[in-house]
Amino acid sequence: MHARHGIAYLTLVAPNVQPASRHPNGVQRIERVYIAVKDVAAAAAHYARVLGVPAPKMERGTVINADMAIFQLGATALGLAQPAGPGVCADALERSGPGPFQILYRTSSMDACAKWIADHGLPPPARGIRNTGEGAMLVMPEHACGAYIGFVGPA
Question: Domains (ranges, CATH) in the chain?
């Protein structure tokens, strides 16, 4: 257990880790985790101090309809999101208050992922276009243990 700027954290070390197996939904890795906040600029400044990195520039998330600060931490990113209007982020903030609300996975095939979801009796995920122009799918909280589960990748 360590502390940095008043926030406790754990450093996890996993020797002899086996590589991940291939899943039929094509998921390769976690792309991003999102945290809903009420003031993205203040939260970004705080996280920048804690992480010891510069605060990222603000951008607009089109799928979750939020103003975002994305901390790129290697292949995975941490996104702080403040609602820009009605939508996923606003719903999450209203329902649960500030905190984690979505995990976004990189998949090798959006079609394989959608098929796996359908084959397991879930409704088709909502589709959208990210601010990068890339397609995205979103499984709603009522079908994903209370969190939004997103997928991005090629068709």
Answer: 20-152 (3.10.180.10)
